[in-house]
Amino acid sequence: QKEVEQNSGPLSVPEGAIASLNCTYSDRGSQSFFWYRQYSGKSPELIMFIYSNGDKEDGRFTAQLNKASQYVSLLIRDSQPSDSATYLCAVISSGSARQLTFGSGTQLTVLP
Amino acid sequence: DTAVSQTPKYLVTQMGNDKSIKCEQNLGHDTMYWYKQDSKKFLKIMFSYNNKELIINETVPNRFSPKSPDKAHLNLHINSLELGDSAVYFCASSPPGARETQYFGPGTRLLVL
């Protein structure tokens, strides 16, 4: 069964610290990897995507992918209280349908 | 000017009723989706339509029937509502050639009593 797993948290970090969110996936043929942010009571919004092994940086966010270990992570530098949200990892699985499979999310709280 | 819109935003109804949720996108996307998010925040795809044709139909009770009158609209009709149908239902859309880049609507919060 194709799955995406995340530690549900909650994860608490102090303001200004680095928040590290982790995700593992079971389908070795997965091709594309995404991080969505969902504020409480709101809809998910795409914040990062990564396709190749290594790091991808966008402002305070860095996505890291290791296909051999089937592991993808999101680092948030200089965390702000406004980063407090649930972060959903999503993977495009192998196969023609190219559907997104989501993890259950990690709840992040950044403490002022 | 909302990109992906859903109606209604909230829906409270009794068990056994039939209800519909509507979704519209004005982004020119050709693929639309319905997701269900349960109380544990797990977001699971239900259906996907590409240019009005069904392309993904996950294991969903046949009480749920999607309908896409055109590629800008995807509606969800639910018959004989059950308590377990209570969840947030999100519509999403994606542009041609980029199904992984999905834009979500605001969600419809369904509560079945």
Write a brief caption for the model.
The complex is a heterodimer of chains A (112) and B (113). Chain A has 112 residues and is mostly beta strands.
Characteristics:
A: 112 residues; mainly beta; six-stranded mixed sheet; 11 strands; B: 113 residues; four-stranded antiparallel sheet; globular
List the helices and strands and how they pair.
The complex is a heterodimer of chains A (112) and B (113).
Chain A: E1 4-6, E2 11-14, E3 19-25, E4 32-38, E5 45-50, E6 54-58, E7 61-66, E8 71-76, E9 85-92, E10 100-102, E11 106-111
Parallel strand pairs in A: 2-11
Antiparallel strand pairs in A: 1-3, 3-8, 4-5, 4-9, 6-7, 7-8, 9-10, 9-11
Chain B: E1 4-7, E2 10-13, E3 19-25, E4 31-37, E5 43-50, E6 53-57, E7 64-70, E8 73-78, E9 87-94, E10 103-104, E11 108-112
Parallel strand pairs in B: 2-11
Antiparallel strand pairs in B: 1-3, 3-8, 4-5, 4-9, 5-6, 7-8, 9-10, 9-11
Give a verbal description of the structure.
The complex is a heterodimer of chains A (112) and B (113). Chain A is 0% helix and 54% strand. Chain A has no helices and eleven strands. In chain A, strands 2, 4, 5, 9, 10 and 11 form a six-stranded mixed β-sheet that branches. Chain A has a five-stranded antiparallel β-sheet with strand order 1-3-8-7-6, with no helix packed on it. In chain A, strand 4 and strand 5 (45-50) form a beta hairpin. Chain A is globular and about 45 Å long. Chain A starts with a strand and ends with a strand. The relative contact order of chain A is 0.35. The model of chain A has no long low-confidence stretch (mean pLDDT 91). Helices cover 0% and strands 56% of the residues of chain B. Chain B has strands at 4-7, 10-13, 19-25, 31-37, 43-50, 53-57, 64-70, 73-78, 87-94, 103-104, 108-112. In chain B, strands 2, 4, 5, 6, 9, 10 and 11 form a seven-stranded mixed β-sheet that branches. Chain B starts with a strand and ends with a strand. The chains are: A mainly beta (112), B mainly beta (113). The A-B interface holds A 8, 32, 34, 38, 42-46, 49, 86, 88, 92, 97-102, 104-105 and B 40-45, 48, 55-56, 90, 99-107.
